[in-house]
């Protein structure tokens, strides 16, 4: 992301999805008033899931768990996962390989950034690190007003 431009969140998310060879993605902003992650941008998410992902409690689902733990949450195959982290509706995305990271400003949670592939996939340590760095780079802009 070029620091001299300020792409819309949808453009930013689209760039990240393409960079990681993914097909889906979400960007959420933390609302400190109710401790919910509010959807800022999305790509490739079925319309039926939109009401569910508009506002996610911290601690629930993949994004909420990444926010609660303040660390990446990865699922190699969402379709067969039995960890209980992903909510049942998440399978509707058809996503298999999934990675969500917290957007942190220092130690302060600002939101989450998530990407997904339509094939089973284990993200490498380098890919996780890159997504964390990308998330950190937008943290100040994602802070609630």
From TrEMBL:
What are the transmembrane regions? none
InterPro entries for the chain: GAF (IPR003018), GAF-like_dom_sf (IPR029016)
Q: Name one Pfam family in it.
A: GAF_2
| UniProt domain GAF: residue ranges | 13-139
Protein's recorded name:
Putative methionine-R-sulfoxide reductase with GAF domain
Source species: Prosthecobacter vanneervenii
């Amino acid at each position: 992301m070029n620091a001299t431009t300020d792409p819309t969140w949808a453009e930013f998310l689209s760039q990240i999805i393409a960079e990681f060879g993914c097909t889906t993605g979400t960007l959420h902003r933390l609302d400190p008033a109710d401790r919910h992650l509010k959807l800022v941008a999305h790509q490739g998410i079925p319309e039926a899931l939109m009401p569910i992902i508009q506002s996610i409690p911290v601690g629930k689902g993949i994004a909420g768990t990444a926010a609660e733990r303040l660390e990446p949450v990865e699922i190699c195959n969402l379709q067969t996962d039995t960890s209980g982290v992903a909510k049942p509706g998440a399978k509707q995305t058809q996503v298999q390989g999934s990675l969500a990271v917290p957007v942190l400003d220092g130690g302060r949670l600002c939101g989450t950034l998530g990407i997904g592939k339509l094939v089973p996939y284990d993200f490498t340590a380098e890919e996780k690190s890159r997504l964390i760095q990308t998330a950190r780079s937008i943290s100040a802009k994602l802070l609630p007003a």
